[in-house]
Amino acid sequence: MNTKQFESKVVLVTGASRGIGNEIARQYALQGASVIIADIQPAKKDFPFEFIHTNVGESDSVKALFSIIKERYKQLNILINNAGISVFTPFEELSLENWDKVINTNLRSVFLCSQAALPLMKEKGGKIVNIASTRAFMSESNTEAYSASKGGIIALTHALSVSLSKYKIQINSISPGWIETGNYEALRKEDHLQHPSNRVGKPADIARACLFLTSPDNDFINGTNLTIDGGMTIKMIYEE
Q: What are phi and psi of 111, to 5 degrees?
């Protein structure tokens, strides 16, 4: 990959103070991009990110974020809608407050940030990647709010890709499977071997996919969801 291809790009990554989002931001910084992190938690200081405190589920906070971006950078080339939370609660105990909190942070934020990015991308085009999840297609018990939010992200992605095509804005989503953001070395052998790829995923696996989808060389992939799960969603499992 051309290490200079993002040098003139301004990249916004939401929810990037830690975890997958932080690695995505780090990889863009390594590629020479000007990187902005929008999160409610302070970001690590090990890379030249600009951190802007933002609640991406709240309209006024998102408006303030994009006002700063317009004033300081005059442009936005790439938006990675990564912010997400989970509340795994028995369905009968799931409160409306927690339902709204998950939907607003995970799904409403994609709508708000994509809409706010539009004025900065209209003239020259841009690229948006929305981080969904394999839980949009498969579930464990008590994941209703999270699964609904991630399924909504995929639907919103393909809808926006059609609506915004006239502005040469490409919009895709990524559905990670098990991506270990904690102590990778503490994982068990069986954790790795249950994956057809023979290992659990790492944040860098998702970051590389973002670089691929937003590369200047990619002017064709649009409205697509890319599943990155080591093959787990295509593996048939029978209980003995």
A: -60, -50
